[in-house]
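Attaching the record inline, Q. Sequence:
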Amino acid sequence: MWAWVFGVGLWGGNHPLSAADRSPVEAEVQSKVVKLYGAGGLAGLQGYGTGFIVSPDGHIATIWSHLLDADAVAVVLSNGRRLMGRVVAAEPKLDLALLKIDATGLEHFDLTRSAAGGPGTRVFAFSNMFKVAAGDEPVSMQHGIISARTKLAARRGRFASNYSGPVYVVDAITNNPGAAGGILTDRRGQLLGMLGRELRDAQSQVWVNYVVPAGEITPTLQAMMRGEYTREKVVDPLANAREIPPRTFGLILVPDIVYRTPAYIDEIVPGSVAATAKLQPDDLIVFLNGKVVGSVRTLQAELNLLQPGEDAEFVIRRGSELITVQFPVPLSLDEKQ
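Structure, as predicted:
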């Protein structure tokens, strides 16, 4: 349930609070939270998000998402200062990314002093949900309690969450558009964890307001900041799978001649599912199954993750129009589409 929501102004009951009445904890935490602006703006994907500063030298933790597919991510500090950030490391299995901006002497969360919570712990959540702040305005602040600590089993549509470890479930509606990468603190302003994505419980399909505990991401963040982090090698069950070329769906793309060649359609194979869907040369593929397609290479990488029998949903840009088409992945790549 909603308790207090703090956006451009602070509210206590039905009366706005003056700046002098604001909690010292709120003021201290606000200086450590940043607004992020990057890729997005199409097909319901927001081009904004939240992060939090984890070193005085400009390291920023946030959720790993489509927002970071841009060449650079705009970072707005609490005082309104706008800087460009770059991704220095990411761990999709933790839904975690680390950005770096050129700044020093920043107020930040000391990861060695993060806290732990449990059911009944009273908490604050900070995020730029719904893009309530764009400059030096404070981000939203919510008040609630931790309802449970459990393992995450959630989905977005038919796609399971990357992260499946321990989470705090909170009683405030924290996981809103733009909130992912925000923070949960205790009443003293100590870091408890990072706000997660907009996901539904895998069984009940109810939206889950969850937070990844600081203890789950701190060792990885510390290794990333030291430049020592290497992702754990895992056995990829698709490593030996056959490549799924765009031609499987009747799509012939423009030649991949530069590093980030946009995924424009060059030709349509007559009689294919793409022809039946009336796709055309010069159409641009911008999303595949909700993932941003930044180039011909990223499209091929995403196609290779598809499983036989599942659906491939393409979002196509034609001029100013967005067109969504869905094709089944053939059970055999020899099967004509």
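The chain has two domains: 5-226, 246-328. DSSP finds four helices and 25 strands in the chain.

More tomorrow.
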